[in-house]
Write a structure and sequence with these properties.
The structure holds two protein chains of two kinds.
Chain A: H1 4-13, H2 15-37, E1 45-50, H3 54-76, H4 79-85, H5 90-121, H6 125-128, H7 133-156, H8 162-191, H9 197-201, H10 211-215, E2 217-223, E3 226-233, H11 238-259, H12 277-295, H13 308-330
Antiparallel strand pairs in A: 1-2, 2-3
Helix pairs in contact in A: 1-5, 2-3, 2-5, 3-5, 3-7, 3-8, 5-7, 5-11, 7-8, 7-11, 12-13
Chain B: E1 2-11, E2 14-24, E3 29-34, H1 40-48, E4 55-60, E5 63-64, E6 75-78, H2 90-100, H3 106-115, H4 128-141, E7 146-150, H5 158-175, E8 178-182, H6 186-192, E9 195-200, E10 203-209, H7 210-215, E11 217-223, H8 230-233, E12 238-244, E13 247-253, H9 256-264, E14 270-274, H10 278-286
Parallel strand pairs in B: 3-8, 3-9, 6-7, 7-8
Antiparallel strand pairs in B: 1-2, 1-4, 4-5, 9-10, 11-13, 11-14, 12-13
Helix pairs in contact in B: 3-4
The chains are: A mainly alpha, B alpha/beta.
InterPro entries (chain B): AAA+_ATPase (IPR003593), ABC_transporter-like_ATP-bd (IPR003439), P-loop_NTPase (IPR027417)
Protein name (chain B): ABC transporter ATP-binding protein
Keywords (chain B): ATP-binding, Nucleotide-binding
Chain lengths: ~350, ~290
Amino acid sequence: MYPKALWKLFNKQTRFVLGAYWFLTLLATPYMYWLVGRFDTDNSFEFHHSLDSLTGNLTLGAVIALACIVMGYARNNRYNEFTLTLPYSRKTIFFSYWSFGTFHIMLATSMSYILTYITIQSTYLHTYMASGYLWKAWSGYLLFTVAIYSLALFVGTFTGGFVSQFIITLFLLILPGVFVVTFDELLRIHTVRDFSLLQYVSPAEPYSLSMLTNTFEMFIEVKNSVIVYEYYLPNWSIHTLLSPLLYIILSLGLGLFLFSRSKSENNGKIIIFERFQPYFFGVATILIMILGGFIIPLFLPFVQPERLYSFYLGAFITGILCFFILRRIMNKKLTWLK
Amino acid sequence: MLNVRNINKTIEDKKVLHDISFSLTAGTITGLIGRNGTGKTTILKTIAGILDPTSGDITFNNLSIQKHPSEKVNFVYVSDSTQFLNSYTPNEIAKLYISIYPTFDFELFKSLMSRFQLPLKKIRSYSKGMKAQLAIILAFSSRVSLVLLDEPTNGLDPIVKRQILQFIVEEVAVHNVAVLISTHHLNEIEQIADQVILLRDGKVDLVASIEDAKERYVKVQAVFKNELPERLTLQENITVLGKIGRVYTLLINDSISQTYALIEAEHPLLLEEIPMTLEDIFVILLGGDDYVS
């Protein structure tokens, strides 16, 4: 059975964030190109476009919010209880979450690039822009955005509400970077040597979803109708595109598995699977402790932040606070209903 | 039609449902009664597919609902929370139901909206009682075989409550719908239900028709010269429901005629049988009437 009813339901549920996403997507690229392209530049201009902008990041935020509204917020306000009573299997429901969001991402992104293409063709930009870049940017951006949406949905299968789904998704997106930087700092503070681990892992960066925010970029500098400087990022390879594909396949597979076993009785909690809770509690406490070890000493007047004992003092204070606060929060059910 | 077989449910290491079994047949109204926190809503949510049973099975027309969720097209669950309706207008929500339930009768929906005088404006502006009415109208307009109602009359004024109960009885009689109502408004259930399922601490304590349940018990008023004779107070099947002056209200459970004879042997000044209510049975089985409204 084609779940038309589910799409109708999700459409109603997400109409505001969906509207925001469409608006931002159409604003992020075509409008920016149009703004630049409409000026008479005497054949000398600089054109820079990057997705690492406020609009670009907000668009990405809207994609994650879309997944969090359709799953996490629905758990908070018991909207999902209505969905689960409908004559569809949980696999169909989860797949509909995915197909609904993916459909909008594909449509909005495609429309955005068609408009951009028309803008480029109708202005002086078409003389200077490298042919094929737009197609590469469209296909890459589309894949990465769907991968991020899929990841956010997967997170929604084990989290109990909007806030935890959103935060954990963001955390997973930046996890590789945060992990390397934190581990690097930990080593440095213990050995007084700079290992600069980032340089060893930077080749892996293209395989991380976080690349989306900082590498879709182009720059053209033209003087007297001659291109004097230009660059286009990213430089695609088939491996680069395999990364989001893998994220999509894994997120869908694991998401379908977990959503079929969803524990609706724990809706509103940070983690809905009771057996995952101790692991989450342990990992979150350790990570927050390490972070606290670096941050807390900066605010303590009687310690020197760069010293090892300061790190452990900060970690200890954060650990104690985290232990009690997190333990309390983890047993709470956050719901928004009358 | 619906068979619930040996359902168990554990939430946060606490067993909330113990081996629940019962059946529902077409054209009957079943009341699911019990004190607060005994698992009434958990049972309804498990049947509706919101919660998974830890063990046991629920079948509809001999098909497991968990394995064949498409069978849920034959029933509608009306939750005690109607918040999801807020963003719709009545016509929008009816159209959504049409796309879910192929049997949805839009003409019936319109006539019921008019019968219960519900306006066609945004549901957000409805009162709690109006939302409850709308949810019930949507359920019955879906023309399904089974309707699950969780505390359906909460928030309804007495007149609307009577209209809704009357409407449910009509639907069951005319369209052979099965209705399972979770409630602790015993007087309402007594008026309309064919059978009751009484829950105690997550276990089924009694499944019986209202008549059978009442036949198992007799309520009498008795006046004695002095206090209630000690011989009677020692009888395990006699419960003192109340005492006003020297007038005792007693509930006799099982061995009715022998116990009646026993009371007569104490030469009461007055002994008369008075009508039993479901609430009396509820009180004796679950102990205390502080949760009964």
